[in-house]
């Protein structure tokens, strides 16, 4: 009976229109739209990756081997199951134009192909000629195609020649599109494509050279990918095989999109939390205006349940409307901007209406609306029949009844559970939730402190009427100091945290490394070249030091006889191949943390020294056995020691080192890092590349710039999400300013009656807005710095320093936003006629 009566009351209340609820609708719509749009874009990319999986991969399946070609047994199995097989050799090298000191060199990622490439898709060239024709060459030189950025960097024109190693090539065309580029992963240099036979005399594929081979399989239409994957892994996984198929043609891209999408949705939840503050403020302001109505209903016999249900149904209906608008916007915007998004994406996407992300966004919106409206609704039911004055809602107790507290905790737990389940990143979800809750608590405490200090300051500001009026207003309940600090402060906190994290990560990559990092990495140095290589550098006074080590690559396949992933989980060390070295003596700069180094001239079973930090994460201990597959051969050794490995210096650092007798008989090359004065780097490169054309040089500063470029895209995506949060906060700020208009009208009328000028009243209004904005910016900065420090210290494991330029922008933004919103709603109260206002209050 009470519910039907409440429904009738709610319908009558809704006839009054949306006055007072526009901010509620806008906050919910914006937050839900952001989450729905991110989810829709992610689903579109995932659908595109699934649909075009074979094209992205370049075949129905791929078998990948580290620094070796497939064995006869492996080739026979591929020929048995596939209709056609294409072999690709992938490695880095130097493209050289010219001779001697005038030669130009550029790092390039080489793809050596056979006649079957590409199995799926088409290579697009400029000029538009067939790939086999471009690679056939002319004038006795094999042909090559190259990305335009490298052509321009080397000053080449179509028809010019250049060298890869000891082999000259004729540039036949510019590479415009590579159908399987997304499967290639991160590359430090632009792409060059040649045929594998043309590299026979290049000296680039000597034993021990760092390269990988990929065998693309064109399978029969009825092939069972899951069964073939299981068979391939059971037969060849211990030989270092990595299997990929069309079900996930670009696993690196797919994983990145999934994680970035999950992170952006969590940032979107921060925006919803800001919107929730606005929802709570709007509901509270609305119910404050309904005090007389509620008290009258109580006088006429309405129970607390009827009061609660009436406004719960009314606000619930409006919340559903806001969520519906948000879902519609979030689903429509990606479709509307699909051509622009697809043009910026290097991978295919299939944009459509996907119910799952829209339902996810709607659930988040419902739970957020419930969480932030429950408390003001619960306080409204406590208004007594005899309470017929304006501030009854403000005099209600702070905490609602226990049943509402229990419902709030349950809703919050459900929201976190859904966020963790949908994003599949529980730790990130908990970190985000903890950060939001911590920021809300800090901002709430700061708002209360601001009100307290303003109350004290108002008494001390005698003789300064404008400042006193401003401080007195801030300390009062009607000015909405809490809403302003919470909404704008939380939005600024998210933006400040992103700015601090980005600045510190960039500093870790580009700021501290140049002081300690080497000038060059030289790889693929053959053993018989080491003496001449070392001698050239030893005689150069500009070279500070040189570090060299044997270099092999291996895949950890077993730990104590069990599959490595079953023992250590999905640790990053087990994801792909890792650098392996050997050494007779412990380096002077290396410190053992446990165990002992093998003695000189040790000739027993293989022993392993493992990186201490990674060993602790994987649960390894001294005496454990580890099997490493190197060049298709299993080597099982015993862990004899753990040692510190510092990767932050960009020097040589190996996760796994073994005694010389275990590895020195295997084909391998050497890696070297050269620390030299910057002015001498070019000459060092010219001399070494001229004497040893097979050696590849990676300039560390160029690598840092490439990583920073990738980081820029990630930071931009995070900033867009944070900007939505800030925009929501600004909407809440406008709502708070609008909600306090009536109070400011009355205040201005009283001040005018007492003789205050319009100019003085305007300055007072501006001063209170500026003070609130400044306080919100400062508190947000503290919260953002704390969050940035926590992420840098606990997640990224980097140093931390405050980015003061970003900090200044945050404080200025809070100041300007609050001042603008306050002044926008100041003209009405200032221009109101005191007689009309005071007569209405009689």
TrEMBL record:
Keywords: Cell membrane, Membrane, Transmembrane, Transmembrane helix. Residues 266-380, 722-829 form the ABC3 transporter permease C-terminal domain. InterPro entries: ABC3_permease_C (IPR003838), Membrane_comp_ABC_pdt (IPR038766). This is Drug:proton antiporter. One of its GO terms (cellular component) is plasma membrane. It is a multi-pass membrane protein. Signal peptide: none annotated. The lineage of its organism: Bacteria, Pseudomonadati, Pseudomonadota, Alphaproteobacteria, Rhodobacterales. It is found in: Cell membrane. It comes from Roseobacter cerasinus. The chain crosses the membrane at residues 21-41, 260-287, 308-341, 361-380, 401-422, 428-450, 765-791, 803-827.
């Amino acid at each position: 009976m009470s519910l039907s009566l409440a429904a009738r009351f709610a319908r009558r209340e809704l006839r009054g229109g949306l006055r007072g609820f526009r901010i509620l609708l806008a906050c919910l719509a914006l937050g839900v739209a952001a989450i729905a749009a991110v989810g829709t874009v992610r689903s579109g990319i995932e659908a595109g990756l699934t649909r075009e999986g074979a094209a992205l991969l370049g075949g129905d399946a791929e078998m990948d081997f580290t620094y070796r070609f497939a064995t006869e047994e492996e080739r026979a199995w591929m020929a048995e199951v596939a209709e056609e097989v294409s072999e690709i050799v992938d490695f880095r090298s130097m493209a050289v134009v010219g001779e001697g000191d005038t030669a130009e060199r550029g790092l390039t990622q080489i793809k050596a192909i056979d006649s079957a490439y590409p199995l799926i898709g088409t290579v697009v060239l400029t000029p538009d000629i067939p790939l086999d024709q471009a690679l056939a060459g002319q004038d006795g030189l094999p042909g090559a195609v190259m990305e335009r950025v490298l052509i321009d960097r080397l000053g080449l024109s179509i028809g010019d020649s250049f060298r890869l190693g000891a082999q000259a090539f004729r540039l036949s065309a510019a590479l415009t599109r590579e159908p399987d580029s997304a499967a290639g992963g991160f590359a430090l240099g632009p792409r060059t494509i040649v045929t594998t036979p043309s590299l026979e005399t290049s000296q680039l594929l000597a034993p021990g050279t760092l390269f990988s081979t990929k065998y693309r399989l064109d399978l029969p239409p009825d092939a069972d990918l899951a069964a073939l994957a299981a068979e391939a892994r059971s037969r060849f996984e211990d030989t270092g095989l990595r299997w990929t198929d069309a079900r996930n043609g670009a696993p690196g891209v797919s994983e990145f999109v999934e994680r970035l999408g999950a992170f952006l949705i969590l940032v979107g939840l921060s925006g919803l939390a800001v919107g929730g503050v606005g929802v709570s403020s709007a509901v509270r302001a609305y119910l404050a205006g309904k005090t007389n109505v509620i008290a009258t209903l109580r006088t006429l016999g309405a129970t607390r349940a009827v009061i609660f249900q009436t406004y719960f149904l009314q606000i619930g209906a409006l919340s559903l409307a806001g969520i519906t608008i948000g879902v519609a916007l979030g689903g429509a915007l990606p479709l509307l901007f699909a051509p622009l998004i697809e043009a910026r994406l290097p991978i295919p996407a299939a944009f459509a209406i996907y119910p799952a992300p829209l339902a996810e966004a709607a659930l988040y919106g419902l739970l957020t609306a419930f969480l932030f409206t429950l408390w003001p609704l619960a306080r409204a039911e406590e208004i007594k029949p005899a309470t017929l004055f304006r501030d009854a809602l403000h005099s209600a107790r702070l905490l609602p009844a226990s049943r509402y507290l229990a419902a709030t905790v349950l809703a919050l737990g459900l929201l976190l559970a859904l966020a963790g389940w949908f994003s599949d990143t529980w730790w990130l979800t908990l970190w985000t939730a903890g950060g939001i809750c911590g920021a809300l608590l800090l901002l709430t405490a700061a708002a209360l402190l601001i009100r307290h200090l303003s109350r004290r300051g108002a008494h001390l500001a005698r003789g300064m009427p404008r400042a006193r009026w401003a401080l007195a207003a801030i300390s009062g309940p009607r000015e909405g100091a809490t809403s302003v600090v919470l909404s704008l402060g939380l939005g600024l906190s998210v933006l400040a945290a992103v700015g601090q994290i980005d600045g510190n990560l960039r500093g870790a990559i580009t700021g501290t490394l140049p002081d300690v990092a080497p000038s060059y990495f030289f790889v693929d140095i053959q053993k018989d070249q080491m003496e001449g290589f070392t001698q050239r550098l030893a005689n150069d006074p500009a070279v500070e030091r040189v570090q060299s080590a044997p270099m092999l690559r291996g895949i950890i396949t077993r730990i104590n006889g069990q599959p490595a992933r079953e023992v250590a989980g999905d640790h990053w060390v087990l994801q792909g191949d890792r650098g392996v070295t050997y050494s007779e003596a412990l380096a002077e700069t290396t410190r053992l943390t446990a165990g002992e180094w093998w003695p000189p001239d040790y000739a027993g079973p293989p022993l392993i020294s493992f990186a201490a930090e990674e060993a602790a994460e994987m649960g390894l201990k001294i005496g454990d056995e580890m099997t490493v597959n190197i060049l298709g051969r299993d080597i099982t050794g015993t862990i004899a020691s753990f040692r510190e490995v510092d990767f932050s210096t960009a020097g040589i650092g190996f996760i796994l080192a073994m005694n010389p007798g275990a590895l020195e008989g295997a084909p391998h090359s050497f890696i070297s890092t050269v620390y030299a004065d910057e002015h001498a780097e070019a000459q060092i490169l010219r001399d070494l590349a001229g004497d040893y054309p097979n050696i590849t040089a990676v300039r560390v500063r160029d690598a840092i710039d490439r990583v920073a470029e990738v980081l820029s895209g990630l930071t931009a995506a995070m900033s867009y999400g944070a900007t939505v949060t800030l925009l929501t906060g600004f909407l809440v700020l406008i709502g708070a300013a609008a909600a306090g208009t009536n109070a400011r009208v009355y205040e201005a009328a009283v001040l005018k009656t007492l003789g205050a000028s319009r100019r003085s009243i305007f300055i007072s209004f501006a001063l209170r807005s500026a003070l609130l904005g400044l306080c919100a910016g400062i508190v947000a900065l503290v919260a953002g710095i704390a969050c940035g420090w926590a992420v840098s210290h606990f997640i990224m494991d980097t140093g931390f320093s405050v980015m003061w330029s970003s900090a200044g922008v945050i404080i200025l933004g809070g100041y300007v936003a609050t001042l603008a919103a306050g002044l926008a709603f100041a003209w009405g109260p200032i221009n109101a006629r005191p007689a009309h206002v005071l007569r209405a209050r009689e």
